Amino acid sequence: MLKTGQQHLESLRDGRKVYIGNELVEDVTAHPAFRNAAQSFAMIYDRKRDPENVDVMAYEADDGELSSSWFLKPKTKDDLRRRSETHRRVAEWSYGLLGRSPDHVASFVTGLTFRHDLFDDNRKGAGAHLEAYYDDMRRNDTFACYTVLPPQGARQPELYLREGLKVPTLQVTGEDSDGVILNGMKMLGTSAVFSNETWVGNLLPLGDDQAAESVTCAVPLNAPGVTIWTRKPFERYAISEFDSPFSWRFDETDAMVLFEDVRVPWERVFTHNDAPLSREIYFRTPSHIMGNHQSNVRFHEKLKLLLGIAHKSAELNNVLQVPAVRDTLGRLAAGEAGLGAMIAGQIEAAEEMVPGYLNVNLRYMYGALHWCTQNYANICEIVRELMGGGPFQMPADVSVIADPELREKFETYWSVPGQSAVERMKFLKLGWDLLGSDFAGRHQQYERFYAGPAFINTLYNFLNCPWQNMTDIVDGALTSYGTPEIEQVRRPLAAE
Ligand SMILES: Cc1cc2nc3c(=O)[nH]c(=O)nc-3n(C[C@H](O)[C@H](O)[C@H](O)COP(=O)(O)OP(=O)(O)OC[C@H]3O[C@@H](n4cnc5c(N)ncnc54)[C@H](O)[C@@H]3O)c2cc1C
Q1: Ligand 1 pocket test: which of 145, 188, 445, 446 has the largest number of ligand atoms within 8 Å of its C-beta?
Q2: For residue range 67-95, what is the model confidence (pLDDT) as tens digits?
Q3: 443 alpha carbon – ligand 1 mean position (Å)
Q4: Per-residue confidence (pLDDT) for residue 152, from 0 to 100
């Protein structure tokens, strides 16, 4: 089914335990820290069903169920195009600011189902359980986030044991005929507050002695024993939509998820007690590629917003004719066009990693992922530079227009040719929210780390490069001419 926004909101009123500091949130859909972002996620569910979107953003699955296109198992380039366009529309509606929108983790899970054998080798029937979970997600339009890293600093359990401390990272602490018992913490559940489930797993390698941590499973976020500890929610501190339009509506939040004696039935356990496998599943299937294609597409939409702010700033500051400014805008435009080409190329040069299915080109996807994670901060710096000191020339907030006398003075002194003072303030507040606010700082960190640290992203590119092809070119060039006998060596020109 394609759930409605209202159904999604209702699904979040499920008794989940979300903490802001020491405050236990009763209802995330009504709380001032989360209600607007909850509506933004609901908006995605509603717009996806609209007549102008449903043909692309939904498909009829084999069981006849109309399902969101992010669950489509691609077999042709048209399937890949449909998936990509679906990601694009979701990202367009949120300006690329919701990184963990409902299409991200769903794409990871869809990709995993291409290889039941990996899961069956670990535990008999696990492949079928995974397929059943995927079907369940698809039929209910489930929104899952993921928590696939141990908490920072906890990657060497022996250090904790030496100090007599409890190892904080999530592990299986018991099992019986029904399933496993989980205890410990996982980071960092972006969108956990607004998701139905969390996918628990391991995207970084584990040591052989960390088998207890190597569980992969799906856990409802209202399961007994699960608590969600959010970082500072920016929406709560946004005083109005006018003053902080993005913080107001698009703070997806990030949260540590704590598991205390959480029971997970075997039907939802997909790997267990196999440290290497718990990570390899993402790379021996197209899972990681499919999930991160969404990240590429989402980033591209955000980049368009940044370019729009850059150009508008130059216009309003009356510097668009300055050659150096045009040069700066041209460099931004080249980057944006290049990313668009990298995304299109991933589909044009699609590959078959698992027979019968098509996936976007792996190397082109990792190349784009690397470009995005490495360039975001620099792009923001450039756009901030173009904004000049404008954001700080504005009054503290929009309340200034409530006083007729102040408003008149504001319009008299702050307006610029072609733009009223209030319009200018609106634009500068929007720009600053994306580039200089708390929300902006979080986005800088998100774009740096959402796909793991920089060195891991670089490693993906190193490991997947066909180096032999490159060195063969050099060898070919070296053998295209001979090595002279000593007496034939031509003297240096100067000596002739
Ligand atoms: C805003 C945000 C949202 C996120 N969302 C999610 C999410 O939805 N789900 C999820 O599971 N995770 C999420 N993450 C977690 C993210 O994957 C991690 O932050 C990332 O993998 C880095 O891990 P860490 O924060 O523990 O840093 P650390 O591993 O502690 O690294 C700290 C620094 O040390 C460097 N470093 C560490 N080891 C090495 C090394 N061997 N060589 C070179 N440099 C090294 C790193 O590059 C980094 O600069 C999110 C993170 C952020 C910031």
Answers
A1: 188
A2: 999 999 999 999 999 999 999 999 999 99
A3: 14
A4: 84
Give the Å distance between the CA of 375 and the centre of ligand 1. 17
Give residue 251's pLDDT band: very low, low, confident or very high (50, 70, 90). Answer: very high
Residue whose CB lies within 8 A of the most ligand 1 atoms, among 104, 186, 373, 450, for a mutation test? 450
Give the number of the atom of ligand 1 that is nearest the alpha carbon of residue 149.
Answer: 11
> Ligand 1 centroid vs 188 CA: distance in angstroms?
9
CA 206 / ligand 1 centre spacing (Å): 15
Of residues 282, 277, 268, the one with CA closest to residue 112: 282
Upstream peptide bond of 9 is cis (omega within 30 degrees of 0):
no
- In this structure, are residues 327 and 291 in contact, taking their beta carbons and an 8 Å threshold? no
pLDDT at 489: 73
- Measure 194 CA to ligand 1 centroid, in angstroms: 22
Query: What is the architecture of the domain spanning 287-467?
Result: Up-down Bundle (1.20)
Which residues are CB-contacts of 357 (< 8 A; sequence separation ≥ 6)? 73, 74, 75, 114, 286
**Domain ranges (residues) in the chain:** 287-467
Which residues are CB-contacts of 279 (< 8 A; sequence separation ≥ 6)? 202, 203, 204, 205, 206
Share of the chain above pLDDT 70, in %: 96
Residue with CA closest to ligand 1 atom 33: 453
Q: Which residue, judged by its Cα, is nearest atom 12 of ligand 1?
A: 188
Give CA–CA dist 447/147, Å, rounded: 17
Q: Does residue 187 have its Cβ closer than 6 Å to ligand 1?
A: yes
CB 313 within 8 A of CB 419: no
Q: Quote the pTM value.
A: 0.95
- Both structure tokens of 455: 């060195």
> What would the pLDDT profile of 481-490 be if each residue is shown by its tens digit?
988 887 777 6
Helix axes of 287-316 and 362-387: crossing angle, nearest 10 degrees: 20
